[in-house]
């Protein structure tokens, strides 16, 4: 749930987008891979989304424009396991993500 330094480029693009579109609100949805319990994954995905919300708030984006959502391991975009049942670390890495969605236009 900690933001990695290379994320700053994309987060700054998001910040600039929000500054240039003050009428927009977004949902920030956190996801995890399939490792861990459901409760752990929901908590982790919530923390991932909150990290992005906090970053944007610290830069001056109003909290009312930001909604965090936690989806845990639901809706993977890549397999967590290979066809033979072995672990797929590359797929799991892709599933550990945050997605953005415009949810409101004033």
Report on the structure:
By secondary structure, the chain is an alpha+beta fold. It has three helices and three strands. The protein has helices at 7-20, 38-58, 89-95; strands at residues 24-30, 66-70, 98-105. It has a three-stranded mixed sheet with strand order 2-1-3. Strand 1 (24-30), helix 2 (38-58) and strand 2 (66-70) form a beta-alpha-beta unit. The longest helix has 21 residues, at 38-58.
In short:
With 106 residues, this protein is of the alpha+beta class. It has helices spanning 7-20, 38-58, 89-95; strands spanning 24-30, 66-70, 98-105.
Task: Explain the layout of strands and helices.
Blueprint: H1 7-20, E1 24-30, H2 38-58, E2 66-70, H3 89-95, E3 98-105
Parallel strand pairs: 1-2
Antiparallel strand pairs: 1-3
Strand order of the largest sheet: 2-1-3
**How many helical elements?**
3
C-alpha-based Rg, rounded: 15 Å
Average pLDDT figure:
95
Decide which structural class fits the backbone. Answer: alpha+beta
> Largest sheet at a glance?
3 strands, mixed
List low-confidence stretches.
none
